[in-house]
Amino acid sequence: MSSQEIPEENLPAEQDPAHGAVEGAGDPFADPGLPAHQPRIQDIDERAADRSERAVAFMFTLSMLATVGFIASYVIFPVDKIVYIFPFGNVSALNFSLGLTLGVALFAIGAGAVHWARTLMSDVEVADERHAISAEPEVKAKVLADFAAGAQESAFGRRKLIRNTMFGALALVPLAGVVLLRDLGPLPEKKLRSTMWAKGKQLVNMNTMEPLRPEDVVVGSLTFAMPEGLEEDAEDFQKQIAKAALMIVRIEPDNIKDKREREWAHEGIVAYSKICTHVGCPISLYEQQTHHVLCPCHQSTFDLSDGARVIFGPAGHALPQLRISVNSEGNLEALGDFEEPVGPAFWERG
Fold this sequence. Notes:
35% of the residues lie in helices and 13% in strands. It is of the alpha+beta class. A 5-stranded antiparallel beta sheet has the order 3-4-5-6-11. The protein has a 4-stranded antiparallel beta sheet with strand order 7-8-9-10, with no helix packed on it. It has a two-stranded antiparallel ribbon with strand order 1-2. A hairpin with a 5-residue loop joins strand 12 and strand 13. The radius of gyration is 39 Å and the shape is elongated. The protein starts with 20 loop residues before the first helix and ends in a 16-residue tail after the last strand. Mean pLDDT is 84; it is low at 1-6 and 8-24.
């Protein structure tokens, strides 16, 4: 007998048609072993389904109320208010209320979604054969059909109460994050656009704390000045001097290239902001022959004889110039504030 001719009764069980191998070979998921589906009470009783819908809507509504409470906490409780809450003891009323309301808001959304999925959405388990990453058109059509069927079975369109309250909860929760941004500090408003300099403010030498006179500034020297009336022991001294600090140099008028710079100077004495326009470092290095100043942080270099324009480094724009003159007492004074914000070119320049 040929090796190709094996009696059917001698075939292995997995190859014997009587054992169903051939019948099941084309449909390996014909019996995936899933237990028989047991309908839920909500599947057969519309009143039970309505109760579940109201429960889910209640959770979403609770989330909305908790979010409103989170925002209201910022208005109601001051930062320094301490209250006793058992069993936590003395706690910050603001922090406790923020944590409680935000926790309830997020928990209620999650609990509502879980209850919705377990009681109203379809719970029929479906086994499907894996397919290639690049699906065939008929497979794509099947996925879209399954999605449409799932959307219909979830009752998303029919259960308007759930849908509307879920949208409300999801829309309000992000407002908690917006409120948190307000806690970063007070808004700058126009504080970054102005300094203490104003018309008539005298230039005070930061070393001697005396008003500067034209004869105090000689060619080749670098003098630092601050506005009259700013005291070193003032509470806001650091904030004010960080914007108002000046560099004073004298340049021969014929060596000043920029026309406006020459007009805003007094007998070749020019006043520029000391604050670098890159990241706000104080400029302190001056080269007499070239009239260049160098920021020690990142080597941005400015030409004080040409409108303090940037000639090297990462700084984005020239140093602001302060228009100066001499008052009746013979002291140098400002003729106004800087015409543009000092320091880095952040969004406040817009």
